[in-house]
Design brief:
The complex is a heterotrimer of chains A (153), B (108) and C (150).
Chain A lengths: L2 H28 L6 H40 L3 H14 L2 H15 L1 H6 L1 H30 L5
Helix pairs in contact in A: 1-2, 1-6, 2-3, 2-4, 3-6, 4-6
Chain B lengths: L2 H33 L1 H11 L2 H22 L8 H26 L3
Chain C lengths: L1 H15 L7 H34 L3 H5 L2 H21 L5 H20 L7 H29 L1
Helix pairs in contact in C: 1-2, 1-5, 4-5, 4-6, 5-6
Classes of the chains: A mainly alpha (153), B mainly alpha (108), C mainly alpha (150).
Keywords (chain B): Membrane, Transmembrane, Transmembrane helix
Protein name (chain B): DUF5658 domain-containing protein
Organism (chain A): Candidatus Curtissbacteria bacterium RIFCSPHIGHO2_01_FULL_41_13
Chain lengths: 153, 108, 150
């Protein structure tokens, strides 16, 4: 694997995990009694940008290297199902995340008054953030299992 | 409600509704590409890779539907909370559906 | 950091609870401990992923990633994250949650250090469950004992 691809893989992981941490921070912030709108806006925007970056770096690694060099190794080994089920799920479910996190950004930026006054909006947004964290963590775990299926040939 | 607040409400309900359609389209495209190899090939030929095709098309679906829903917003007036919950449910079910589908699809 | 933060959080909580109330200063101290634990959790996740990237680049594959020790440590870390969220939203009794959290930190540390551990995943999970139960009993005893002494 070239150094560029290694860097892209590492950045994909760092930004994806960073997105999870930032979205978790958002979740904790929005669940407080006294909401600090400024930090909600910051964490939601940074989480969205982190997921976008993870999408780009991971996408480049996936389309230019994984299919040609990693997938055949996994399919030839004892854990072919890891690609067929886990990687396929991961690569498609990941596509949900930018849209879900964009909604969080949009509502946080545009309806900050409601977040303070309307508990139903607050609860729905907190639930959406929880779903984003859950999905992203699920994808991270799938990624670990996919990496685990790549052994020496 | 002042004009800024009204426009904000239109935009955020439009974005939320657009995201619902985008997530739904991702699920549909994913399943369809697996059961119809011709569609998968079409994506690969036109976008250099089927996954890039799904990414681009989902963004396009999102943008188009968001613009439409923002402009024609009557249906979604005061429905932000409902839309958020629909998005949550569709995303959650979508994850389980895709996992189950690929599990089923992995058997010959 | 996580192990230290969790240990001192338990010690301080037991001490502060002895008069059956937590005043402002004690609350601030516990907040600092929670902050340290959160930072420890972030470092644990990122550093753990760093090790995994190195293992992946060395093609260590199933020998590392599917080993019972690694799978058990991943399970413990997931439990840690989940319990931390539950505690934050008060979906779990705080004393039970903190016992599970403390036991999990120590379990993750032991599993990280004990490189040549060679037992099945189920045996490790059983040991973890028993360890968690023992920690819960010890902490419950310590809290009651400390309160009674006062």
């Amino acid at each position: 694997m070239s150094s560029v691809l290694i860097v892209f893989l590492v950045l994909h992981i760092i930004f994806g995990t960073g997105g999870i941490v930032l979205m978790t921070a958002y979740l904790l912030l929005i669940s407080k009694k006294n909401i600090e709108i400024k930090w909600l806006k910051v964490s939601s925007i940074l989480a969205f940008l982190a997921f976008l970056a993870s999408w780009i770096f991971g996408g480049f690694y996936y389309t230019s290297y994984y299919g040609k060099a990693v997938k055949p190794v996994i399919l030839k080994g004892h854990f072919a199902r890891v690609h067929e089920i886990l990687m396929e799920t991961k690569e498609h479910v990941f596509l949900f995340i930018p849209f879900l996190s964009l909604v969080i950004v949009a509502v946080t930026l545009a309806a900050s008054g409601d977040l303070i006054s309307d508990s139903k909006v607050k609860k729905a947004l907190a639930s959406l953030a929880f779903v984003v964290v859950g999905i992203a963590l699920f994808i991270l775990i799938l990624g670990i299992f996919v990496s685990g299926a790549v052994g020496k040939t | 409600m002042n004009k800024l607040a009204k426009n904000s409400e239109r935009i955020i309900t439009g974005v939320t509704a657009g995201s619902i359609v985008a997530v739904f389209s991702i699920i549909l495209m994913t399943v369809f590409a697996e059961v119809n190899p011709a569609f998968k090939k079409w994506l690969a030929v036109n976008f250099t890779h089927h996954w890039i095709g799904k990414s681009v098309l989902s963004i396009a679906v999102f943008l188009v539907t968001t613009i439409i829903f923002t402009m024609f917003n009557k249906l979604f007036k005061n429905k932000l909370v409902l839309l958020l919950w629909v998005l949550i449910i569709i995303a959650s079910i979508g994850v389980m559906l895709l996992l189950a589908f690929f599990y089923w699809h992995s058997f010959p | 950091m996580g192990v230290g933060g969790a240990t001192f959080a338990e010690i301080f909580y037991t001490k502060f609870q002895s008069d059956k109330k937590v005043d402002l200063f004690e609350h601030e101290v516990l907040k600092i401990c929670v902050g340290v634990i959160r930072i420890g959790l972030v470092i644990l996740v990122f550093s753990g992923l760093g090790f995994l990237v190195l293992a992946r680049l060395a093609y260590l594959g199933p020998d590392v990633f599917y080993s019972s020790r690694f799978l058990a440590k991943m399970t413990v870390v997931v439990v840690l994250l989940f319990v931390a969220l539950l505690m934050n939203f008060r979906f779990i009794n705080l004393e039970l949650g903190s016992s599970i959290s403390t036991a999990s930190w120590y379990a993750a540390m032991i599993l990280g250090i004990w490189r040549n551990l060679n037992v099945s995943y189920l045996v490790i999970m059983l040991a973890y469950f028993i360890f968690g139960f023992i920690v819960f009993l010890l902490l419950t005893f310590a809290r009651k004992h400390f309160v009674l002494k006062k």
